[in-house]
Amino acid sequence: MKFSINRRFFFNKINMVSRAISVFSPLPALSGIWMDVRKDSIVLTGSDSNITIQTTIYKGEMNNLEIESTGSIVIESKYLSEIVRKLDSEFIDVELIDYTLVQISSPNGKFNLNGIQASEYPEINLERPENHFVLNRDDLTAIVNQTVFACGNDDQRPVLKGVNFHAKGKTLYCSGSDSFRLAYKKIELNEPQDFNITIPTKSLIEVQRSIDETIDAVDVYADTKKIQFIFDKTIFQSRLIDGNYPIVERIIPNQFIAEMRVDTQELAGVIDRTAFIRTDKIHVIKMECSEMVTRIKTASTEIGNSDEVLTDCVYHGDDLRFSCNGTFVTDALKALGGEKVRLQFSANQGPILISNPDDTSTLMIIVPMRSHD
Amino acid sequence: MKFSINRRFFFNKINMVSRAISVFSPLPALSGIWMDVRKDSIVLTGSDSNITIQTTIYKGEMNNLEIESTGSIVIESKYLSEIVRKLDSEFIDVELIDYTLVQISSPNGKFNLNGIQASEYPEINLERPENHFVLNRDDLTAIVNQTVFACGNDDQRPVLKGVNFHAKGKTLYCSGSDSFRLAYKKIELNEPQDFNITIPTKSLIEVQRSIDETIDAVDVYADTKKIQFIFDKTIFQSRLIDGNYPIVERIIPNQFIAEMRVDTQELAGVIDRTAFIRTDKIHVIKMECSEMVTRIKTASTEIGNSDEVLTDCVYHGDDLRFSCNGTFVTDALKALGGEKVRLQFSANQGPILISNPDDTSTLMIIVPMRSHD
Q1: Which of A119, B82, B186, B323 is 20 to 30 A distant from A65 in Cα terms?
Q2: What residues in B contact A109, CB-CB < 8 Å?
């Protein structure tokens, strides 16, 4: 196994597949990158057994790849990545010099790394799942930014540790929820689809990070067990989370007793100023809403209390008093963006629907907290 | 106690004295800022009992300070600082509204914090020590950047946890050492002095951070127990470290068997590329020097090995082979700056003197490691 290649190009590819590799790998071989040098290409694979990333480098790309001999080896990803990143030459040589010893060399330096035999790398099924759709990079980014934050982190309810993709007809409904709040986003698809899967948040975040600005859209393939994102000679595969995702449409309120429109920045600022008070590490705020005045209060016997009035705020409907997690509201405002935000109240102590009045494709639902006064 | 003030000005002053405050304060009152509102000024004090920072805000500065009534209170620094930072108004009111309850208010919001009675704040002696000299901000910055990194962190030898300031005549010798390396810097003083003190590294770092670009020089007062830096209506006081500092002049070699001149960037790059190999978390490099070629090698049975040649390097003297801590060399190069660096070798396995050939006011000494091959 021997080849030479443009260092920067090679580094970017190593970096790409390294995203899948965990430092806490259960299998020693999985802490490495499987490098398979073929006649006209190099296939790099990284995996933590949940996420697998495989990319192929072809001769003739802008990478000056010259393959002298073929072969296959697994190399510890962190060392390989560090050496290739730090080398100061434009091109590097990579060669299997002795059994499992791999030499990476520049004109002045030789770096030898102990590898692992390729036969020890686990077999990973990268067969393509059946359902296919296309996702724009912008949509994928929006899904990650607008739903992942609301997902749970509780091993007792693993299904909430992912974002649910529910396709019905030409609409994809993406939901993230930790059972106290829900982030819900609609995406239009080109072709009708019918599936209901839950993707681990980590996988979604990593695939989004892997896709650079040169890529407009990715091909997505999914079945009930796994999902693949295909882009730039790369397969990004993730296992799905087993289990039935809650039917979120039942949670979204559609009748309201009151509505508030408020400047997003102002509401975010007022809530942020109450963050110095936390009760059991939770940032509890109390809202007192009437058509006369809306106040956000907070109190702790130990630290002190606060009381601030919203100025750029219009409120219609019943008087309301409730407590909720201020961080949840701040997260929702950040995810929505927009100058103005609308809060719709379904009942006293009932779920609150937060949305951008100009774009209702994304909805945030927050459940108030039981308060003790 | 009641006053109003420009919010940003007040925040900067709170921030300044907060630097002295530790989150792990032994005394509850020391987690707060002591705010003493007098007729024409406000005195803010923060302390962790080792470092004390006291700053005075006078009426008539560009701060719109209006004092309605005097008084004294201690307020938890992290809450005060967070509220004053986040408020969105240009001016704020601060008032003791009930026993120890302090109200900070803007036009739309009221924030009440539970304070602590001023009588519970410990007495801190801020009397001025006897010896006086002036230190330029640039010199202070250079001392921090060029000596602190070399200091020790071992409670067994507390004196090495500080930078030694040894004044003899019109020269101040500043030394940082962890006993395996020494950073040694000479500063010219305006007037002759005679003292030998050791300042905790934390204090030096904090005082340097506290001094902004508007301040050219600070007045320094010191005796055997404490040091004060005076600038911008602020006293920055630190306890000194007890104990005799080693006589560093004995360590600095002055006879050499070999000398190397090398491009600083290249040497730093070559050493950095060996950093993937660590033995018991230490970055051990092996240097092989001769007039023909200089190599930097490293090896580990587990990970692999490396071997790189220095190209922009001139070496005169005996052939040498030794091991040393690569991180120490990198730290020294970073502290020295300069395009070229000179390494002077006192003996085989003897201390190495590293300096910038154009500026010998700063010296770095590194002791090689015993190698087992």
Answers
A1: A119
A2: 270, 273, 306-309
